[in-house]
Amino acid sequence: MILRGIHVEHWCCIASLHLQDLPEGIIVLHGPNRTGKSSLVKALRGCLFDFDHDTTRADFRSCLPSSGAGPPLVCVEFETQGEVYRLSKAFSKRSDGYSKLERKSGGGWSVMEGSPKEATRRVRELLGADRSDQGLNQLLWLDQGVMTLPDARKLDGSLEKQLANVLGVMVTASDLGFKQALDKRYSRWFGVRGEHRPTSPVTELQTERQERLKKLAELQTKFRDVEQTIRDLDDCQNALPQAQADLAAARQELARLQQEQERSQERRKQYECAQRDCQAAEQQATAARQGLDDWQAAKGRWQAAESATAQANAVREAALRDRDRLAAERAAGEQALQAARRTEEEHRLARDELDDRKELLRLARQIGRVETDLERARQLQDAVAALQQQLHEQPAPDRQSLEALRGNRQAAEKLRAQLQAEALTLSLACKDSTGVKLRLDQAVPESVNLTPAEQAHWSFRQRVEVELAELGVIRVARSHEHVDLERAAQRLAKLDCEYRDTLRVFGEQPDDDCLNRLTERRVRHEADLSKLEAAQRELQQLAPHGLALFEQELRKATGQRQTVVSRRPDLASWRPAEEEVAGLEHAFQARAADLQKARVALEQSVKRAALAQDKADQCYRAASENAVVACTAAKYAREEFERQGEESSLQTALAQGEEALAAACRRLQEAELTEEEKNIDQRCRDAENAAKVRGDRCVALQTELERFRGRLEGSEGLHPRLADAEAAVLEIQEAIVREELEAAAHKRLHDLFEECRDSQVQKVMGPIAERVLSWTRALGLDDYREVRFGDRFLPESLIAGTGATDRPRTLEEESYGTVEQLAILVRLALGGVLAGKEPVTAILDDPLAHADAAKHRRMLDVIRLAAEGNPSWSPPAGRLQILIFTCHPERFDHLPGARQIDLSKLISREA
Amino acid sequence: MVSFLHTADLHLGLRLTRFPPEVAKKIREARFQALERIRDLARTRQVDFVLVAGDLFDDHAVDSDMARRAFDMLESFAVPVFLISGNHDPLLPGSVWDRPPWNQPAPTRVRLLREPKPVTLQPGVTLLPCPVFRKTSLQDPTAWITGVPCEDSAIRIGMAHGSLKARDHLPADDHLIARQAAHELKLDYLALGHWHSRRSYPDPAGVERTAYCGVHEPMRFPGTADNRTGWMPYSSLQLQEFLDAGKGEILQVTIERPGAPPALDALEVGHLTWEDRAITVSTEQDMARVIDETATTTGAERRILRLKLTGVLDARALRRVEHLREVLDRYLVGELDTTELHVLPSDDEVREIAGQGVLRRVLDRLRAEATDRVPASACVAERSILLLYQLAREGGE
């Protein structure tokens, strides 16, 4: 459909508007706010679709003019299927309301449908929609402020059908029904991201299986224990008879040994008596031998002690001599150290004079430096004052002012040239000399004398009056005033005035060389400024706190010097010399170092002597103690030796003891026992132990046997319980297999459906997505890699970047401007596809309000492309008639071929 | 003349792990119902006594209720019941035999023969019992009879539990019994237990004096040795002799006089019928026929049916499988195995259900996956196809 004309009367604020011969392509209808643009769009929607002529809808009331004029009349001319129609509606419930559809035939209109209802129905049939927000209108007729695409869930069915007819089927109703049913069942096992739900039947069954397996394992363990118990019981039963036989044998052996033990009792007593005698004789002989050995040992110790006493006394004498010698050496060393310390103290007194000389030297240097700086600061102060004076007396323009003056002159020259080129020339020639009175444009009339010899010329812009004394006044003027020329003259006059005023500020006359002079002044001015800044910077560095500080410092140094001189008058006439002070300092330091070195050496020597004396003292005391100890030991050794008795009596006792021992040994040998008699007790004990061990073993076997019996009795009912537990595990395992298969089948079906749906959407919407993407790039939105469409012909998300892991972004995540631009691109792309053989109309009410200048400019290019269409695209894009309503017409200047309509001139508003 | 019933391997308290608890309970209960039939036969056929040749219980650790109920049941017999322990319920210390009521003295009818020594059942009839003391044993349980003097005037009946050395490759520890034990031990009849199918063996003179009586109630699907019921013999091998015949039976033995050939009469006493069927289907008519047959079979509540369907069906026919499951629910146990039943939707079905949209693509992909060589993937794909049909139909409705 193409809109060819719109006629509105008494509609909202519009008293009258007539638009005719609307072309295809882009039409920009502009006007300031409150012109009636939105009212015009509403009239269009209401007439074609939304309002019957006798409508009582509440939203129609706002369309009635506030002036009370009426009834509202809207007439829309449109072309479709090669025919031009006109739908006229007078909105009134009274007799003056009507609705009729006419068709253009020849040069006039013939009524097609006079019945209001039929006319409305017929128009809706021709245009393929029942409402202005249905069908293609939902996509292409945008109200003011609508930025986003329609909600995919609310996409009109007829529009979807049209898109499916052109692009192909994506998802059928049965697909959607199936998916809904599948999702409902799928959620039993899986979450939205395909993860297993914690409450999934599979999980619950697996948990239950774990419980049952645990119970089964416990029963199986019990079962194995029972089996083992049976084996153990067998072993126990087999072992018991043998153990009982062993016990009986052990008891028999014990009885036999006990009888043998009683028989050998007398002989064992005799042997024990002889054994005791022999032991006593052996002890007596041993004691005698020990007494003799002790006497010899005591004698040796006494002799050794005497020798040690003599040796200790000799050592004590030697130590005493060493101690006396070292005490004398220490006293001599201490006297020499006292002398060295006195000499060093005397040398230290010479230090004060040397310090005073150094102080005088420092003060002389300080006074000299301060005087020099003070002099330099005074020179800089004078220079700064002189430069400031000079800069004040000779002002100069800055660089911008100078550039402005030059620009002024260049603009003036251009204007002057323009005036000269477009001005008219009045040429006068006369035969006799005569005087004329001229008035060029608005200039003051002037009198001019003409001579026959020369032809006079004057330029003028608009008009000229020549007053000839004899003839009267000749007026020459342009038929239409050349407004631009007049504006140029005014501009030139203004520029000249500004130029002269500026020169006057600097005291210059507006001659040809004045700009050069000003330039020289500016150069000089800048040089002086540089000097001034340098001087000020140097002064600031030299005396940041002013010259008073220098003078104060000078006075202080002079006072300090006077103090030193008063303390040491002999230096009053002394002229400080750095080399001299350094020499004195060096000599002082050398002498002090020598003295210190000598003193330290003496101190160390005295210290060593003291240590040696202490050591000698210790040696002497130790030797004295050793001598006392050795003497005491010798005394005790002699007393012990004397206590041992005589050597002869000891040897006699030893001989008697050895003889008694020999006699006892002979008697013991005569009472010696046989081997069996000796170990009869041990054999009895062993037999008793064996009998006890075997008895214990029998008891243990009996106990074990009873224990095993008890354990087996405790296994009652284990068999059915184990079977039931196994049955329970098998049952749950089968249930898990079934449930897992169900879950796997649902998941496979779900995943496959998603995959196939995506594939189908990609196949159908791929070319549209590519077109939108290429336009997006033309806009400068280069970061999108893919526009992903959903299964309702509208985009769901954008993929940015090049990485496979880039997260899809919904359109809502973009900025207002981008959302609006992308929405318009999608609308135009789909609209172009649906346009097919016949153009369709798009209405954009105040579009691109949020676009920046660059994007706005590029969007216009895309809108132009979309309006032109292209049959070679895949799928082909038809032409569009795009009506743009805006209050900023300058924003749509860059639309070549677009028709601009100023509604403010065409709409007459209601009073 | 002496007449008696020979039964064995009652396996009361049967170990079952493959059925739900309530079904397992019914199967175990059926063994008591079959025992009741034996009791009725003992009365109606006026036999002198009943021999139970081992394995009265499925395990020596059955619970006390089971032990008590079995005891009471046998005590209610009109004639004496002599029984020995088997390899499933050996005479172990602490076993069921050591607990009440089996360890109490002087019961009226039941007599557990704990020792291998001759028992005079009635004048002129001697029973030589061979009780089992271990689950496995390398010894011939009948060996002790060699030392028992033989009286020509008495009918000698042996009762043992073990494997007759009727063929090679038997496990050595399975209580092996000499093939000609009856002949060598001068027995008129050797009542055996342990094997689950009824068999009789002739002596060198061709007289059948040795017999296994079979089980009184089936324990597994006939002819299969798999453990799908969960029961397993306490033997080191899965012997073919343990296969079920699919019916429960006992033997009535009549011996006219010492040395006379025994007359063996097999009597059916089983309560449940176990059935294993495999049917190939390819059309909806096939499925309808299977459903009809399954639904019209009598005594479904006493049948344990394992039905395996194989073949390829279209989706519509495949939906009848659910009908078949409903029919099988009427059985005591009705297991349906469809692992080898595949779905192959017809073109009409594809158009009708999947349409031309996404669903069609999904179905095509799943059909390709269903032919995958990886069984798990193919299985999931097949199930997914069925699910797709189900959901698409639900969505359409």
Overall form of chain B: elongated
Give Rg of chain B in angstroms: 27 Å
The strand order across the widest sheet of chain B is: 4-3-2-1-11-12
Average pLDDT of chain B? 89
Greatest contact pair?
Answer: A-B, 53 and 49 residues
Order of helices and strands of chain B: EHEHEEEEEHEEEEEEHEHHEHHH
C-alpha-based Rg of chain A, rounded: 67 Å
Percentage of residues in DSSP E strands of chain A: 5-15%
Describe it for me?
The complex is a heterodimer of chains A (911) and B (397). Chain A has 911 residues and is of the alpha+beta class. Chain A has 21 helices and 20 strands. A seven-stranded antiparallel beta sheet of chain A has the order 7-6-5-4-1-2-20. A five-stranded parallel beta sheet of chain A has the order 8-17-18-3-19, sandwiched between helices. In chain A, helix 18 crosses helix 19 (816-835). The mean pLDDT of chain A is 86. Chain B is α/β, with parallel strands linked by helices and 397 residues long. Chain B has helices at residues 21-44, 64-75, 181-184, 284-296, 315-318, 320-328, 347-354, 358-370, 375-396; strands spanning 2-7, 49-53, 81-84, 110-112, 119-122, 125-130, 155-161, 189-193, 199-202, 208-212, 249-255, 263-268, 273-281, 303-313, 333-343. Chain B has a six-stranded mixed beta sheet with strand order 4-3-2-1-11-12. Chain B has a six-stranded mixed beta sheet with strand order 5-6-7-8-10-9. In chain B, strand 7, helix 3 and strand 8 (189-193) form a beta-alpha-beta unit. The longest helix of chain B has 24 residues, at 21-44. The radius of gyration of chain B is 27 Å and the shape is elongated. The mean pLDDT of chain B is 89. The interface between A and B is large, with 53 and 49 residues.
